[in-house]
Design a protein that fits this description.
The structure holds two protein chains of two kinds. Chain A is 74% helix and 0% strand. Chain A has two domains: 1-83, no CATH class; 87-165, Arc Repressor Mutant, subunit A, CATH 1.10.10. Chain A is mainly α. In chain A, α3 (30-46) crosses α4 (57-79) and α7 crosses α8 (141-154). Chain A has nine helices and no strands. Chain B is of the alpha+beta class. In chain B, strands 4, 5, 6, 7, 9, 10, 11, 12 and 13 form a nine-stranded antiparallel beta sheet that branches. Chain B has a four-stranded mixed beta sheet with strand order 3-2-1-8. In chain B, β4 and β5 form a beta hairpin. Chain B is elongated, with a radius of gyration of 29 Å. The chains are: A mainly alpha, B alpha+beta. The interface between A and B is large, with 54 and 34 residues.
Chain lengths: 165, 252
């Protein structure tokens, strides 16, 4: 019992910010990102017969986060016709470049499906190879490539603006 | 379709910048540990229930099959299956969870001796009883004893009982508290059944008591001494009592 507690404490205290950043990119807002990280941490250690080892605990939690995010998005889509993944304020208080960049990219990411968004985050933020993304999302490599292709096509306008700047 | 292979350095940088906008996490490890502990306890309980169900199934199926075989054998080849009551005499005495803090089964404290006598005869299935009269001590003036069970009366009112099953149990029903605490159970089992309402103490060589919604149930306990006291979770229930049982007082 001490093992899971130790691993959970270590993740929650030392790796929480890194997990939160990934969750923030997936969810788009802080509150949902906090919920997603907590949910993933609890799910990772709640099964008595399947406790992740100290080496792969973070990988396991990240995989749960991605699955949970896609699952929640699918459930929301079932119940709500229109899903707003990103909750971006209409009038940003700070007009700095970072905020402008965030708002543009955040708006662009809003247009992606949950799986496309997960693929973009895992590929271009976590820098995972396509094979690992496919494993994490439990789909084929071809599907991951298709999601990435569609996502970058949808982000084309934002990418063109970024290149011009 | 080469989306997975393109570099998109600008997208990588922008995502890193965007990720940096996330606020620090608003949760604590302690809260997570509490939630995980609760979920693990539930999971273990469910697994335990599943194992018990499997064990019960494994035990019950052969018993049912052998029981059916016996009944067919007793039918003498006529093809008539005898009734279930005739085929499987239970080797274990019946357990009746009727000992409450305010009486035994339907017999509540305050009831008249005749009523209690009839109801307990029915409950125990044995009319053999002994009468004690003119006890005259500590609020008791007479008592009726069935094997293992003594009920006490004061001014023709049922006021208490004490139960300790006899050594030769036979087919006589075993009485237990409403939640299933038997004489011979460990006090730790009582704690499991009643939680914080269950207490134990070293008085008079070891006693236990529990406060229920129907009043207090108590009794003597004995067993291995623990931590310098005469009673502990590994001690066993010796008697189950409630109400006025005469002298001396049971509970502190």
């Amino acid at each position: 019992m001490a093992t899971w507690r130790q691993a959970l404490t270590e993740l929650a205290e030392c790796r929480a910010e890194a997990l939160k950043r990934q969750a923030f990119l997936l969810c788009g807002n802080n509150a949902e990102a906090d919920d997603l990280v907590q949910d993933a941490l609890v799910r990772a250690f709640a099964r008595p017969l399947r406790v992740p080892g100290p080496g792969d605990a973070e990988t396991y939690v990240r995989a749960i986060m991605v699955h949970r995010f896609v699952d929640l998005a699918r459930r929301r889509a079932l119940w709500h016709r229109t899903v707003r993944i990103m909750d971006v304020p209409e009038h940003a208080a700070d007009a700095s470049d970072a905020v402008a960049l965030r708002t543009d990219l955040a708006r662009a990411l809003t247009g992606l499906s949950a799986r496309q968004r997960a693929c973009v985050v895992l590929r271009y933020y976590e820098d995972l190879p396509v094979a690992q993304i496919a494993e994490a999302l439990r789909c084929s490599e071809g599907a991951v490539k298709r999601y990435l292709y569609e996502a970058t096509n949808r982000l084309a306008a934002w990418l063109a603006t970024a290149e011009r700047d | 379709m080469s989306g997975g292979d393109e570099n998109h350095e600008d997208l990588r940088r922008a995502l890193a910048t965007l990720a940096g906008q996330a606020r620090p996490p608003q949760f604590h490890a302690d809260a997570l540990i509490r939630r995980v502990r609760l979920l693990r306890a539930r999971a273990v309980a469910m697994m335990g229930g599943g194992v018990l169900a499997v064990v019960a199934f494994v035990i019950a199926v052969p018993a049912l099959v052998s029981g059916t075989g016996q009944s067919l054998d007793h039918s003498g080849g006529s093809g008539r299956v005898s009734s279930g009551t005739a085929t499987a005499p239970s080797p274990q005495p019946q357990v009746r969870e009727v000992l409450n803090g305010d009486g035994i089964g339907q017999s509540r404290f305050g009831a008249a001796p005749g009523v209690v006598e009839r109801q307990l005869d029915t409950l125990l299935g044995m009319p053999s009883r002994t009468y004690y009269s003119a006890i005259g001590g500590c609020g008791i003036d007479h008592a009726i004893e069935w094997p293992g069970l003594i009920v006490f009366f004061h001014r023709s009112q049922f006021v208490g009982y004490t139960y300790r099953p006899p050594q030769q149990q036979g087919q006589q029903p075993v009485l237990a508290t409403a939640r299933g605490l038997h004489v011979g159970d460990k006090l730790s089992y009582g704690q499991l059944l009643y939680g914080r309402a269950f207490h134990m103490g070293p008085e008079q060589g070891g006693v236990w008591w529990v406060t229920t919604s129907h009043g207090q149930i108590d009794g003597f306990a004995s067993g291995p001494p623990q931590n310098g006291t005469d009673v502990g979770p590994r001690s066993v229930v010796l008697t189950i009592e409630a109400g006025n049982v005469g002298c001396p007082a049971m509970t502190p």
